[in-house]
Amino acid sequence: MVDVASDLVLVVGATGGVGQLTVARLLEKTSFRVRVLTRNADRAKKMFGDRVEIVVGDIRYPDTISAAMLDVNYIICSTGSSAFPSSKWEFDVSDNPIEWLKIYFDSSYRNLKAKNSPHKIDGEGVSNLVAAAPKNLTRFVLVSSCGVLRQDIFPYSILNSFGVLDAKKKGEQALINSRLPYTIIRPGRLIDGPYTSYDLNTLLKAKTDGKLDILLGQGDKLTGQTSRIDVATACVESILQPITEGKIFEIINGGNRPSEIDWKKLFSNLNQS
Question: Rounded to whole angstroms, how far apart are CA atoms 189 and 90?
């Protein structure tokens, strides 16, 4: 179990849909202190107030993230960019239509010109974060995606049109190769949100809209939808349960939801990855 005197959790991607809910779930646990790594301190401050420690940094740039690692026991990473090119990718191009054609049809050019693509965030960024993590880390929990092993199979072949699953797989592999104690969670298509609330009380009270149970699987065989709230809870429950160390699992919603989710029982059915 966790040590009250030393349990500092660093949440990366804390102002995103899953990240906000993860912070809220951690704050419900009196055994954790929470630190967030963010590009935008004002946004994090509006969301979480003084209940978290805020460190400004960007996983795309390794020299900006070392300060966030001091005394960290756990890392939960739920960063990510959109799967398809959009303004979120922050393209550094002119209005020349030839440049935009090259972006859509030339992956190497697209990766060069996009500052916030999956290649930069889920691939390089996560790899940078793993490299910066303390060697004595108790656990690194990474939120990835269903389909990372099925990029050539519909519907994941469509989802991976611009390399998002390739990038997430690169991030996964960096974590596995690091020999850090890890848990990798692969949700399906995210539902319930995304949350953009600046009211922490709203996040603390967030409940799943659906009545579906939680299903876990391994080997990247599950397909379906997953509540962001359940993903966030799975992240927190994973660091509470030593049995999840070294586990890679998918999480989707299906079947009738019980009155209470028994996470320990769910995790006990997982095999070592």
Answer: 23
Interaxial angle between packed helices 17-27 and 41-48, expressed in degrees from 0 to 180 and rounded to the nearest 10: 50
C-alpha to C-alpha distance for 253 and 227, rounded to whole angstroms: 7
pLDDT score for 5 = 45
Q: Distance between alpha carbon 95 and the CA centroid of its chain, in Å? A: 33
Is a pLDDT exceeding 80 seen at residue 203?
no
Please state, as a whole number, how many other Cβ atoms lie within 10 Å of the Cβ of residue 243: 14
139 in a domain, yes or no? yes
Which CATH number characterizes residue 136's domain?
Answer: 3.40.50.720
Token pair for 66: 């070392």
- Asked whether 156 and 165 are in contact (CB, 8 A), the reply is yes
Q: One-letter amino acid identity for 8? A: L
- The last residue of one of the domains, among 116, 136, 166, is 116
- For 63-83, the pLDDT digits (tens) are 999 999 999 999 999 998 888
Half-sphere exposure of 248 (CA within 13 A, CB side): 17
8 neighbors 73 (Cβ within 8 angstroms): yes
Query: Are residue 92 and residue 227 in the same domain, yes or no?
Result: no
- Answer yes or no: do 164 and 226 share one domain: yes
CA atoms within 13 A on the CB side of 176: 13
* Assigned domain for 39 exists: yes
Neighbours of 103 (CB within 10 A): 21
CB 71 within 8 A of CB 10: no
Number of neighbouring beta carbons within 10 Å of residue 63 = 10
pTM of the model: 0.89
Give the whole-angstrom CA distance, residue 231 versus residue 251.
8
Please compute the mean of the pLDDT values over residues 21-33 and round it to a whole number: 90
